[in-house]
């Protein structure tokens, strides 16, 4: 099984797709994957030199701990990360990045990663939209968003063609974080979408119209759109692959982690070939890493060997605080911002944001 997706990118950059996707070579225009011209990046400032120096000095007084005291080592590491990351503003991408979080394997941390990365990016000054594209509605719950049966939701957008603007809600805890919730109705959408015209394109058309609506009504540009997927490769996931340019795959650091991955990559290749030539796996995030087991380290090593630099350096530890947060209608970023889980998601979000500046984005 060749897992190196970086070498499998087809030569499609610069080609008009025939599906309305912009070619990269369109002169003088920096366009989004949705055919929407990018505005000038909003002024999300980088840190000043003085801020950086203050962080460096603070971090230098954190005591060093050796391998013999893992707890002290973890505390010191958390203190350093807190000093380095808290209150830092992340750079805005030059255009809206639409990232689908997918893995047909269940329970690998898709929803947890979607909501916590989204929260971390929003807390760092960016405008972020989460599309809850899973009938379980777990992302809506974790963001504290109302999603009972009568609420306008992604089902209405996909099946009834309701404008996305009518279904968008603001996350109560985090300014700049928006969500289109999922209700239980969405469970029927897989079947209801089947006879529809352009059934794979419906989410993309809806998001494209919403981005235009935001610009027309003077609302700030969205920096990130993160799409949470169900654990299947049905029409809902296909819609999520068609709306995005990037795929983020969370991989749980456990046995069987890589099983099913080749099927997922094959499906992404198919979507790329037939529906969305821009689609590529830009990011892999290792989740539920348990430093006490050798197995977790082995899985992490294997994934890094296959996927090299698209794997985010910061792994997400298995953490009770992360799993408790949704029952309080919160992400771990507000539930316990100083926990190692929150700091890991913050570090991962920073890497994600920095990649759009360095132009890596998995290419
Ligand atoms: P599904 O395929 O059902 O949509 P998923 O891939 O979205 O699942 P999550 O719902 O994010 O996975 O996570 C599965 C379970 O594991 C949840 O109960 C969640 O709280 C827990 N969990 C996720 N990440 C962590 C972590 N780092 N530490 C501890 N528990 C975690
Ligand atoms: Mg989920």
> Strands of the largest sheet, in order across it?
3-4-2-5-1-6-7
CATH H-level superfamily of the largest domain: P-loop containing nucleotide triphosphate hydrolases
The portion of residues assigned to helices is 25-40%
The number of helices is 13
The secondary-structure element order is HHEHEHHEEHHEHEHEHHHH
How many beta-strand runs? 7
**Residue-averaged pLDDT:** 85
CATH architecture of the largest domain: 3-Layer(aba) Sandwich
Which CATH class of the largest domain is shown?
Alpha Beta
How would you describe this structure in keywords?
Rossmann fold, alpha/beta, binds magnesium ion, 10% strand, 38% helix, binds adenosine-5'-triphosphate, 13 helices, 363 residues
Question: Could you explain the architecture of this structure?
Answer:
This protein is α/β, with parallel strands linked by helices. The protein has 2 domains: about 45-90; about 95-360, P-loop containing nucleotide triphosphate hydrolases (Rossmann fold), CATH 3.40.50.300. Helices cover about 40% and strands about 10% of the residues. The protein has 13 helices and 7 strands. It has a 7-stranded mixed beta sheet, sandwiched between helices. A hairpin with a 6-residue loop joins strand 3 and strand 4 (about 175-180). The longest helix is centred in the last third of the chain and has 19 residues, at about 340-360. The protein is globular, with a radius of gyration of 20 Å. The two termini are about 20 Å apart. Mean pLDDT is about 85; it is low at about 1-30 and about 40-45. It binds adenosine-5'-triphosphate and magnesium ion (MG). Adenosine-5'-triphosphate (ATP) binds near residues 109 and 112. Magnesium ion binds next to helix 3.
